[in-house]
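User: Can you predict the 3D structure for this chain?
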Amino acid sequence: MNRISAVSVIALALAGCVNMAPDHERPALASPAVYAPEYRPDGTVTAGTLSYSEWFTDQRLVALIDAAVANNRDLIAATARIEQARAQYRIEDSRRLPTPIASAAASRNRTPPSTARSDADPPVIGDLFEVGVGVSSFELDFWGRVANLSESALSQYLAVEANQRAFYLSLIADTASTYFELLETEAQVDLAEATLESRQEALRIARLRLDAGVTSALPFRQAETLLTTAEQQLAAERLVKAKLRAQLAVLVGGSIPANLPQAFPMEAQDNGMVLDAGTPSDLILLRPDIVAAEEQLRAARADIGAARAAFFPTISLTGSAGFASTDLGGLFGSDGLSWSFGPEISLPIFDWGAREAKLDLAKAREVEQVARYEKAVQTAFREVSDGLAGRRWLAEQVAAQEQGVAAQERIARLAKLRYREGVADYLEVLDAERNLFSAQQQLLTTQRAYLQNGTTLFVALGGGLDRPE
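Assistant: Here is the predicted structure, written as C-alpha cells:
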C-alpha cells in the first residue's frame, strides 16, 4: 500500500514538468498609438464604468434592453455555449490527475475432481472475495501534452465567455439602434400625416379658386402632385414602421412588452455625457472581442505544445491495491493484502507523417489567430475613431440642418403669401413645400444617426457591460 502511494506521489510530481508550448506574448499594437486629436473630445466620463441603464436616459429604451437581455434567443444560445466550453475544459483538466476506481467482487468456482482421485470424491467448490482501489492508464505528463490540452480548453472557454459578452454588447447596440430608427420613423409618419393634412387643405383651396375662375387648372394639378407625394411618403414610412416593430420584437425575444414607459422624443435622447476615449491600448482590456481573440491565440499556442509532445513517448501507469481472500471473514487480514503496478511506454514508430502534419496545422492556426487578434484591434480602433468623428461632425450637421429647416419654413410662408397676393405662381409654392418637407425629413434622419453614433461609441469603448443573469 505504501509503495502504491509513493508511486502516485511521484506521478503527480512529475506530471507536467516540461511545457513545449511557445511563450504567450501579446502581439504589438496593430493600430496608431493615439486617436486623431481633432476628433477626440475632452471627455471625462469613462464608458467602461457605465451600465446601459446609466447611459440611456429614455426608460422605455432601458426596459426594451432589459427584455432583450432576458429573452433574446441568440444571447441564450451564446450563454449556453459558455456552459459547453466550461464542461469541455473540466473534461480536459480532469485528465491531469489519476482517476481512482474502487472495485469489489465475489466469485464461486467449481473444479472437477482430479483424475488421480476417486470418482466418488465430490468436486472442489471455492469462494474468492476481492476489494480494492486502482488507477487505470494514468498518463505521466512529462512533456506537457495533457497540461497543454487543458490550457487550450481553458482558453477556449474564456474565449467563448468573452464572445458572449461581445454579443451582449452588440445586442444592446442593435436594440438601441432599432429603437432610434423606430423613433425616427414614427416622427416621419407624424410629419407625413401633418404634411398630408396641409396639402389636402391646399388642394381644397385650389379647387375653390379654380371653380371661381380665379386661377387656371395648372395650380390645381400642381397641388394634386404635392398631395400624392405626401400620400406615397406616408405609406412608405408606415411600411418601414411595421418592419422595425417586427425587428424590435425579435431582438427582445418576443412581443414588445406592454405598459412601457413613455418614450422621449429624439431631441431629448442625448444624455449630454462626453466620453473619454483614452488610448487604443486601453481597448485591449476593455473590448471583449479583443479578449476573445487573445484567448484564441493562447489556445492555438497550447495546441502547438500538445502537438510537439506527441513526438515523445507516452508513459502510463496502471496500479491497484486491495485485499483478496477465500474467506469473507478474513478478507481484511494482513495475509490478504495484494497490489499490482505496471508502467507502459508507447511511441509510434512510423505514422506516415501524421504528427508532423498536426504540428504544422497547429502552427498555421497560431499564425491565423495572430492575424485575427490584430484585425480585432484594428476594428476596435476604427469603430472608436468613427464614433469620435461622428460625434463632432454629426453634431454640426444637426445644428446646420436645424437652421436650414427654419430657413425653409420662412421661405414656404413667404411663397404662400406671394401666391395669395398674386405676385408669384403656384410653382414657387410647390418648390418651397417640397424643399421644406425634404429638409424636415433629413433633419430627422441626421438626428437619428447622431443618437446611433453615440451608442456605437459607448459600446466601442467597452461601455454597458452589465453581466446578464
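The radius of gyration is 38 Å. The chain has two domains: 20-96+142-312+355-460, 98-140+313-346.
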